[in-house]
């Protein structure tokens, strides 16, 4: 077992990488440089969303997923869901204690619930695996399986963010979108009927099937079920099909596969996701420095929830699952499950606030402080996790 100091150094290196790339993005976003201004970040974010991230998830997941690994990883989606549910409960406690304005409740809840399960684990895990004498064995095998775990984590996080968190924030953010033309209170928003009175009158003139169809369409518009099928989700589904269907796997995956050029090309494109996303983080943090109006107590509440109580909950749940034989004893797998509880809020929350047109500046402030202090959280907690599982 490595000494505690060696574990600390190992866990600190990926954090340094993140800080260096983030600082470059921060510099590029300065007014005097303006290489990563608001428009540039918007376009780059679209490329990451539609091209880089799906390619990364697809290539890593297809390469590592098999029936055996999928059976072993069954607890991963459940664990990610636990991070969102526990984070939501902690966020609600923060709201009750700090009493923020009603239009910021959804933002605070989202920041506590949705973690950055994308590029953060994808940076941390390879850096940890590269260390000689690390707790996770052979660096090549560690990186292969670790990136598969991280890809599945990223895919599940994307699904939960664009279904659970998106709609939670929509309901609580007093958004004029998808409700009424003017801003209403939370109470009034909750009273918006799924079917108008005119539709109810028309229902008497149509059959039962048409009634069911209308209700389903109306519910879909309110909940925005289409967000489930984000590009990353579609990529994960395709990757699972390729990885699990033997003829497809033999055709595309592996050094001797006839169509391995497809896998190599997708992997090459996906490798751009991590640096691009990290540069965007640095550029967005500049906006946070220029924003104000967020209560300090709410910011502190989010920090305490994400970096103290959520990791403690993760340790209890993951180690409890191990004691009950729900997960394997593999240290790397347990490490990835634990990492999901210590990452900072998801950067896609900024995209969601832009869609709602509410809380953009406040979101930048929260992201600024959470990512600034993530350097501590992502060093101290992973050090403890490696000691715990190894």
UniProtKB/TrEMBL annotation:
GO terms for biological process: auxin-activated signaling pathway; endoplasmic reticulum to cytosol auxin transport. It is found in: Endoplasmic reticulum membrane. GO terms for cellular component: endoplasmic reticulum membrane. The chain crosses the membrane at residues 15-36, 43-62, 74-95, 107-128, 148-166, 223-245, 265-286, 298-318, 338-358, 365-389. InterPro entries: Mem_transp_PIN-like (IPR004776), PILS1/3/4/5/7 (IPR045033). It is a multi-pass membrane protein. It holds the Pfam family Mem_trans. Keywords: Auxin signaling pathway, Endoplasmic reticulum, Membrane, Transmembrane, Transmembrane helix, Transport. It comes from the Eukaryota. Signal peptide: none annotated. PANTHER family: PROTEIN PIN-LIKES 4, PTHR31651. Involved in cellular auxin homeostasis by regulating auxin metabolism. Regulates intracellular auxin accumulation at the endoplasmic reticulum and thus auxin availability for nuclear auxin signaling. Belongs to the auxin efflux carrier (TC 2.A.69.2) family. This is Auxin efflux carrier. The lineage of its organism: Eukaryota, Viridiplantae, Streptophyta, Embryophyta, Tracheophyta.
């Amino acid at each position: 077992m490595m000494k505690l100091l060696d574990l600390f150094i190992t866990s600190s290196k990926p954090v340094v990488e993140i800080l260096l790339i983030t600082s470059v993005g921060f510099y590029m976003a300065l007014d005097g440089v303006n290489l990563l201004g608001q428009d540039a970040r918007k376009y780059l974010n679209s490329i990451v969303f539609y091209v880089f991230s799906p390619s990364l998830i697809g290539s890593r997941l297809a390469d590592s997923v098999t029936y055996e690994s999928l059976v072993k990883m069954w607890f991963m989606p459940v664990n990610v869901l636990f991070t969102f549910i526990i984070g939501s409960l902690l966020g609600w406690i923060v709201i009750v204690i700090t009493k923020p304005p009603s239009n910021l409740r959804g933002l605070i809840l989202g920041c506590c619930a949705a973690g950055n399960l994308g590029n953060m684990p994808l940076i941390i895990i390879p850096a940890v695996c590269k260390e000689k004498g690390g707790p996770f064995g052979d660096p090549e095998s560690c990186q292969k399986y670790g990136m598969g775990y991280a890809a599945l984590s990223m895919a599940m996080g994307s699904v939960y963010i664009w279904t659970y968190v998106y709609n939670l924030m929509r309901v609580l953010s007093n958004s004029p979108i998808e409700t009424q033309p003017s801003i209403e209170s939370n109470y009034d928003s909750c009273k918006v009927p799924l079917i108008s009175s005119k539709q109810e009158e028309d229902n008497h003139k149509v059959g039962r099937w048409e009634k069911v169809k209308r209700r389903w369409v109306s519910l879909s518009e309110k909940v925005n079920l289409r967000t489930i099928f984000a590009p990353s989700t579609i990529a994960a589904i395709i990757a699972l099909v390729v990885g699990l269907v033997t003829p497809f796997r033999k055709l595309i995956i592996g050094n001797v596969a006839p169509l391995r050029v497809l896998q190599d090309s997708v992997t090459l494109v996906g490798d751009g996701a991590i640096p691009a996303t990290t540069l965007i983080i640095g550029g967005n943090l500049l906006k946070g420095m220029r924003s104000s109006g967020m209560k300090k107590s709410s910011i502190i509440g989010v920090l305490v929830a994400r970096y103290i109580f959520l990791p403690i909950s993760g340790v209890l749940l993951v180690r409890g699952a191990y004691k009950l034989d729900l997960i394997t004893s593999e240290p790397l797998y347990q490490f990835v499950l634990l990492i999901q509880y210590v990452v900072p809020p998801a950067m896609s929350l900024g995209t969601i606030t832009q869609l709602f047109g509410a809380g953009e500046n406040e979101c930048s402030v929260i992201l600024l402080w959470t990512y600034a202090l993530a350097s501590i959280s992502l060093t101290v907690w992973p050090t403890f996790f490696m000691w715990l599982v190894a």
